């Protein structure tokens, strides 16, 4: 009797495991949407995807779903008709604890985005994906929370990753790049939202990252999803020399560097202007510390303007073809003493400020030889009685 009960329990366990996994074979004409329509949305299940699926896929109201591509699995934009109302090849809405892994997703660069995640979705995990095209490769919107790891997104119409409407996104070990050479591309676009990033390369974008409308970008190593390991640097590079701004921070937004380094190479344009490594404008804020390295800018190193502020402490701004630190129009830069020196050297003009702007902590700046700033203070302020 005991043996029979044990066998029955084993049989039930095997059946349970079998029931928790479904295979959709698109090479045999099967449909992901058809399979999704047959599932209990509140029972955790894995869908294995085989072949190339040409359909607009909607995941709505699911909890505990995994979409896993078998080798070579591809989700392709259909040739006829728009997608969902939001127009994405894969749309995840009002869902939680969703994992999408091992897929290639392809879309055109003007009519649809590749992957959309919105309407309050949470704990959405994108893993080991290859995204080609899309007006936006990944768009996260309306208070949604997403983790993105080991994702390659190439040649979007606008951006590989857009994060909007009070959403929160973690990015690690990804590659976002453009190989078309055509403008205008932004590596990561953040508006009124929060992005945490490390161990990622952004290549040949007109703007590496932008934070606007109160957006926040934190460059920090984290182990929320994976243990620490590998390179933690965020690299914004432009071997094609197509970049205008490494990072652009505006309209009350901020860029904060913590436990990961931000390296920006070859940013800006040869004509200078406000192009370069980091542009801070419109009440924006840069908190750089010792983990900011800007090298060989074709324009400026750091340009702070329009009532904005930057904190530097141990940063390195070298080899700019125009200015190293530029601060204008009622703005300020404070150079701290915790990690001296902050190296500002080898730039055409190392330090520049206009009559209404200020650089403090000049004693903490090392190697600056070309200085055009009458409001340069050695300490944090003028002498205080």
**Count of DSSP-assigned helices:** 2
Ranges where pLDDT stays below 50 over 5 or more residues in a row are: 1-18
Query: Mean of residue pLDDT?
Result: 93
Question: What class, by secondary structure content?
Answer: mainly beta
Number of beta strands = 40
% residues in beta strands: over 45%
Largest sheet: 14 strands, parallel
Oligomeric state of the chains in view:
single chain
Radius of gyration: 24 Å
Silhouette: elongated
State the helicity in percent bands.
Answer: under 10%
- Read across the widest sheet, the strand sequence of neighbours is 1-2-5-8-11-14-17-20-23-26-29-32-35-38
Compute the separation of the termini in Å. 92 Å
């Amino acid at each position: 009797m005991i043996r029979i009960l044990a066998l029955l329990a084993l049989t039930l366990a095997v059946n349970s495991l079998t029931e928790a996994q479904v295979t959709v074979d698109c090479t045999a004409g099967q449909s992901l949407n058809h399979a999704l329509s047959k599932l209990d949305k509140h029972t955790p299940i894995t869908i294995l995807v085989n072949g190339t699926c040409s359909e607009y896929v909607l995941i709505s109201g699911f909890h505990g779903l995994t979409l896993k591509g078998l080798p070579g699995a591809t989700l392709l934009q259909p040739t006829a008709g728009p997608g969902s109302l939001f127009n994405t090849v894969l749309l995840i809405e009002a869902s939680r604890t969703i994992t999408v892994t091992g897929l290639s997703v392809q879309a055109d660069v003007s009519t649809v985005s590749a992957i959309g995640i919105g309407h309050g979705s949470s704990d959405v995990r994108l893993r080991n994906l290859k995204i080609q095209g899309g007006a936006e490769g990944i768009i996260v919107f309306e208070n949604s929370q997403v983790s993105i790891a080991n994702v390659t997104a190439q040649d979007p119409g606008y951006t590989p990753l857009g994060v909007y409407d009070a959403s929160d996104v973690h990015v690690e070990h990804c590659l976002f790049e453009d190989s078309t050479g055509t403008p205008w591309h932004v590596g990561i676009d953040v508006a009124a939202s929060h992005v945490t990033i490390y161990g990622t390369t952004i290549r040949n974008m007109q703007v590496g990252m932008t934070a606007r409308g109160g957006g926040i970008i934190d460059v920090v190593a984290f182990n929320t999803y994976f243990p620490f390991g590998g390179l933690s640097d965020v690299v914004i590079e432009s071997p094609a020399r197509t970049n205008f701004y490494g990072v652009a921070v505006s309209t009350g937004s901020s860029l904060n560097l913590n436990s990961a380094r931000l390296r920006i190479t070859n940013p800006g344009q040869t004509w200078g202007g406000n192009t370069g490594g980091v542009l801070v404008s419109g009440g924006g804020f840069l908190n750089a510390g010792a983990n900011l390295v800007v090298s060989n800018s074709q324009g400026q190193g750091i340009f702070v303007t329009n009532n904005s502020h930057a904190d530097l402490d141990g940063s390195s701004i070298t080899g700019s073809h125009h200015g190293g630190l530029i601060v204008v129009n009622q703005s300020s830069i404070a150079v701290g003493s915790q990690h001296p020196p902050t190296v500002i050297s080898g730039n055409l003009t190392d330090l520049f400020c206009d009559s209404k702007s200020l650089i403090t902590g000049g004693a903490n700046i090392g190697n600056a030889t070309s200085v055009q700033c009458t409001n340069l203070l050695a300490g944090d302020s003028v002498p205080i009685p």
